Amino acid sequence: MAPTATPSATVRSRVTAATTPVSDRLSARDRLLAAADELFYEEGVHTVGIDRIIERAGVAKASLYNTFGSKDELVRAYLEGRHTARQARVTRFIAGYTAPRERLLGVFDALASFIAEPGFRGCAFVNASAESLPGGAVETVSDESRAWTRALFAELAEAAGVADATGLAAQLVLLYDGAMVGARMDRTAATALAARAVAETLLDAAL
Amino acid sequence: MAPTATPSATVRSRVTAATTPVSDRLSARDRLLAAADELFYEEGVHTVGIDRIIERAGVAKASLYNTFGSKDELVRAYLEGRHTARQARVTRFIAGYTAPRERLLGVFDALASFIAEPGFRGCAFVNASAESLPGGAVETVSDESRAWTRALFAELAEAAGVADATGLAAQLVLLYDGAMVGARMDRTAATALAARAVAETLLDAAL
DNA sequence: GTGACAGTAGACAGACCGGTCTGTTATTGT
DNA sequence: ACAATAACAGACCGGTCTGTCTACTGTCAC
Q1: What is the pTM of this model?
Q2: Which bases of strand C sit closer than 7 A to a protein CB?
Q3: Which are the contacts of B156, defined by CB distance < 8 A and separation ≥ 6?
């Protein structure tokens, strides 16, 4: 209660020296998301604690809880970010093609580029699902992401003139998943190419 | 230090009542493995603590550490058990067929029966890998298990008269993985059937 | 009978977990 | 000039984690 004399001068100078204008930096939210994205993906949701995240983000613990409310919500935000990033990547890849057949196969090109990235560790949704109980936020976001992929395959198959577009889409999802998990488990990037080749075979057979 | 009077009478009667002859029960090791298998598979390796395992096994904590030495070793034993169980299931399924083609497709029948089981939660190795760092025991056992599957597919493909047996094996592993992870993520058993159908197509194309 | 052995119960240690809270500082809108 | 806002650092809480340790009990071979 008594206003004790604090060494505010030294504290101020230290803080001021380390602090750059807020407008020049990413917001605490963005830095938290970036740190969470790296750590959660690299080591798993359960393994990584709050303290490691705020340390990497250079953010106070209170900021995390003011922004996200709980670790669970941070996990959800992390997965939603992964989903939109994947959407962007795939969309960018297939936008480079005009022929329906190439657009469909382009999804596997996008997958190949993802797998070939350094630090690839499989599908973030599959990984997160492996360590979370059913009915949680992880399941919800995963379902959204997977429904988007399936719908995209069906749409591209239909545009390519496939009669049973949803049937082919189911097969392509099979390949997509298989390539992703195979690449992770066997530490090889070859699966995406193999999946693309099989997809070509199935597409020809479905026409 | 002073030999205080303990209520040994009450303790003895309680213990004796709850204790059945050792020869009638499973060993502490087997009960621990059974409990670990259920809990690790259902909820994940990281989520489940030692205390929950010994409670379900009805075993003292010291017995766990005398038998396995560490939680990591228990995890390894759990995965090795999963591996041998999978070998047994697949072997049993394909033993029912004599024609090479049916034997190859029988692997997917075994997969279908596994996926259809209540409590199916995906591939134990994929799940465990999602929450463990590279270079550990999980990776070793996973590699063994996946190498066995791949070799089996190649062997069956060769027996079926496929020229590029290892090439087809790679495709079949793709389907196997895809069906497993797809069934887990989408909570459906239909993927195994779809994978079997695609496998048939690929087998015909490879002959 | 006695000693070896495998088991049980549970206290304990030290680290880490998610989450709350206090208090300080910098920026910004009015 | 001043209040509001948003960020900071970090102590603190109850609980859980893996792993160790002591002390006791039942079974079995010899």
Answers
A1: 0.88
A2: 6-11, 16-28
A3: B94, B100, B103, B104, B107
